[in-house]
Amino acid sequence: MWKRRIRQVRMDYWLYLMLIPGLLYFVVFKYLPMWGVLLAFKDYQPFSGFWGSPWVGLKHFERFFTDPSFWILFRNTFIIAFYNLVFYFPLPIIVALMLNEIKNEVFKRLAQTFIYVPHFFSWVVISGITYIMLTTEGGIVNQVIEFFGGEKINFLLSEKWFRTIVTTQVIWKETGWGTIIFLAALAGVDPSLYEAARMDGANRFRQLLHITLPAIRSTIVILLILRLGNFLQIGFEQIYLMLNGMNRNVGEILDTYIYTNGIQRGLFSYTTAVGLFNSLVGLVLIVVSNTLAKKFGEEGVY
C-alpha cells in the first residue's frame, strides 16, 4: 500500500507541491494560534509570560456567565445575527436567480459590476456614507422626510433603528458579492432540462421551482451550514463604528465587548474565555446543522 502511495505522489508531485502554500497557511495562522486558547484557563500576567502565568481553571467562564451583561451581550449578538440570517442570506440567492434570467449579456455584466462594487468598500467608508445619509444635520434621508412634512429622526442615536441600520449595511455591501457562488452553480445547470420543460408546457416559474432551485439546493445548504458556523461572529469593525453612548444598550455585542475589555483594559485571559465561548457556539451550530442536513438527504460539509 505504501509503495502504491509513493508511486502516486511521484506521478502527481506538482499537485502536491501546490498544496504546500495552503497547508502552511493553515498550520501557521489557524493551528499554531490554537495554543492561545489556553489563556482562557490562566490568569495571564505579561511579566510572567504565557507558561509562567498561573492556572485558574474555569474562573473566567464563571465570571462571564454570572456577569449581568452576559445576557445583554448574548441577546444583542443573537438578534443582529438572526436579522442577518433571515434578511441577508436569501438575497444573494434571489439576486442570482434574477441575474440568471437576464438574456442581454452586456446589461447583465454591467448590473453585476454595480452590485459587486460595495463589497470592496471598507466599513469605515460604509459608516461614513451612512452618517452622511442619516444625520439630522443635512442628511439626505431626513431632508426627504422634512420635504414630505415629517419630523427629523435621529437614526444614529436611536436604539430602535440601530439593528435595522446595521442589517441594511450588510445587505447593501455583501449581497452582490454573495451572488458569485450561486451564479457559478446556476451555470452548471444542464440547458436541455429547460428545453424539455418548455416542451412539456412549463412556464418560467415552474422551471425555477422544479429545475433551478433543486439544482442549486446543495450549494444553498452548504453555505447555510457555513453561515451558521459563524453565526455569532457578526463583525467587529462594522458594529464598533456604529456604536455610541445612546445605542450601546442594543448594539454592544461579544466582539466589541472582547475588544473593549481585552485590548483597552488588558483583560487578556477573560476575553479569551469570552472568545472561546463564541467559537464553541459556532462549533455546536455547524455540527447540528450538518447532521440535520445529512438526515434530510443532503451531503453536508463533512
- The helical percent reads over 70%
Give me the CATH architecture of the largest domain, please.
Orthogonal Bundle
Order of helices and strands: HHHHHHHHHHHHHHHH
The shape, in one word, is flat
Radius of gyration: 24 Å
Could you describe the 3D structure shown?
- The protein has 2 domains: 1-33, no CATH class; 42-119 and 171-295, MetI-like fold (Orthogonal Bundle), CATH 1.10.3720.
- 72% of the residues lie in helices and 0% in strands.
- The protein has helices at residues 2-11, 13-31, 49-52, 59-66, 69-88, 90-100, 105-116, 123-134, 140-147, 159-187, 191-199, 204-229, 236-242, 248-251, 254-264, 268-295.
- The radius of gyration is 24 Å and the shape is flat.
- The model has no long low-confidence stretch (mean pLDDT 88).
